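pasting input
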Amino acid sequence: MHPIYFGKRSKKKIQLHDYIRSKSIPMSVILISTFNHYNRIFLYLIDSVWFSIVKVGSALEELLVVDSVWKRFGDKVVLKDVSLVVHSGEVVGLLGPNGAGKTTLLRIISGVLKPDQGTVSIKGFNPIDSRARKLIGFCPQEPGLIPDLTGFENMLFYARLQGLDGKSVVNRIKELSGIVSLTDDIDRLVRKYSGGMKKKLGLAITLIHDPEILILDEPTTGMDPGVRREVWRIIEEERKRGKGILIATHYMEEADALSDRVYIIDQGRIIASGSPEELKSKYGPTAVITIEFYRQPRDLGDVLRKTGLKYIVDGDIVRIHSSDPDRDVPRIVALIHGAGGTIRSLKVVKPTLEDVFLRLTGRRIE
Amino acid sequence: MKWCRIKAFIVSGIKTTFREKSAVFWIFIWPIILTLMVAYVFIPPSAGQPVTLELGVVNNDHSGSPFNGTIFIDVLKEIEYNGTKLFNVKIYDNETKLVDDLRKGRLDAGIVIPNGFGENITYAQAKLVVYVSGNSIYSIQINRAIMSEFLHSFSINVGLKKIEMTMKYMNMSYVPANMTTQTPWGNKSLIEFLEEYFKGLVLPVNSTIIEETPEALSNRPSIVGWYVLGALGMMMLYSGFLVGAAAVVEEKERGSLERILSTPASEIDMLIGKTVSGLIVLTLSSIAIIVTGVFAAGARITWNPFEITDWLVPLNLILIGLMTIGMGFILSLLSKTSSGATSMATILGLFLAFTAGIWFPREWMPGPMRLLADIFPVTWALDTIRNIVIYNIGFSEAIASTIRNIIVTIIIFAVGIIAYKKVVRKYIEQ
């Protein structure tokens, strides 16, 4: 489905279905739109109605605006003219390889670092302003926990740094420890926690003061799939509560699954932005041929180069970008067999964000 | 700045300190061990009391003289100094056994009385063979000094006794009582002059030695008190250095620094919180050391809450804490890891404790070290405390040095804050 936009500002296009999701539009409306033969026309109608009735009164709020930010460390330019926006009720993915400048950007947004040029505004406040800091919940890549304190004491510590204290905080800690499934372990010393438990506690700390904007730096790195899905659930719930969420990640599937919009950053520069679907349709190949081998060809790299197509080798699986799979598949199969390889499976699938990144940079996200 | 945020750092700092076993050892256990060691090993309860030497004697003199070896042994057994017997005498059959026990460390000294001792001491010059033993250079010096001093005094007293006896005979038979002679002091009786002259031969200089130690250090409790404050100063040195040196780097290692700085809490909130938590821990440790010193080691430390001068003691303790924490912030420029900061703080703290007049009185130290003690501000503040609680100096003297200490503390802490901010920036931009 092509994305349907509302709003006239080019930088702040929001897909309607995401908007409906974020505003909890009644299921009946969605069902009608789904089953209606003219659903696109119907959705446009809803768009118009929203604009005339709802949006005029309560526009999607720009919680975070980053405008032309530059940052240098010595001679190295880490961020180059970076701009992005996060609205209430949306998850924005910041996708890029390690060293692309994601963490530096998040540190600037959270007020830890100052930009050399450009501005960051959090609901109109400079991030250095304590009023801005109360609005954001920053979860750095390292959870930032004190190992000799219990989970409860860690949460209380950060609550106090937010200026919160007393009984209400204790209740909030209990509530959050339930949300992140740490109720039974909250009184244990953090040094005895597993990596996943630490990440979840770190996320709970980010939510302790109920911030309007969540800044999450690689929130699921190092987690097993079960815990990762749990964290995704929490992020999804916060989005439903109208929070603006910015997630820096190098996991494609995370950006794809969670983000309403994605900014792709490489070597300190935003190289593309849009919804995952939009990015895939705009920058991705028509199709991706994925191949799994029984026996790899003698020189796989040479075989792949001979195809003349872009490719990614991901363990035992090879992903080859193709604009015409009907033409390319027989040729690729012949090349593999010619080099002594045998194929276990071959599929033609839709492109992912990783394919988008490959097309844009010629490299994989590592 | 909000109290709630500072409280967060204080509470977490105190809790993490008490949950870290090595910190508890260095801040509480080690100073207490040191205090007890000082009290019961270096300055044992017998310190300040006259020493009793284990003395072996071989008596080969069995003459029938009025004074002989047996009487000499009785003298040795009875002689006292300040109410304590000087010797614990053990009689040996022969010199070989005596030397054997000296070598085994069973005796501090030994005397061999030769045959004819009695006759010689009465009519000529007696001889004695004296052995001195010692397990260390200090004990051998003490044993030698005691034996020399005793034998010197004994020799003089015997000499004077012999003069007394000689003068009796002279008075009776050899010199006419009415004979006079010209002396530097005018015309004097020849008998009187000869007596003075003979005394001068035996004892040319009759000196009077008066022991005058500061009242405060004249007894063991005061000496222990001096060292208890030394232990306290030592603990404050390395603990304060550690609080300052590790303040930022430990947050960096935990990954909590950027998270903290993304909250409304400022760098200064963190600095104040960590300083206050450090001061609280140092105060608790100081109390533990002083209580141990006074009640377990018998230290004499006087503090009167109704005396305004005595209130300068806690103030100076706080100044020491702030100085050492401030110096720790400066050291943090050099420490790249928290374990590095711990090592640096401990090594430097112990080094300065022993070389800068914290642990040993500066009078004991060689010149260059004394210079270090003279210029080290922590020693100034500790000396102010010692002057108040041990030497009982007056308010005007105490307040003058306290004002100097306050000014120095402000300078050190201000430099420390600059260093701290630089370190925070350095780690954030890494």
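fyi The longest helix of chain B spans residues 137-174.
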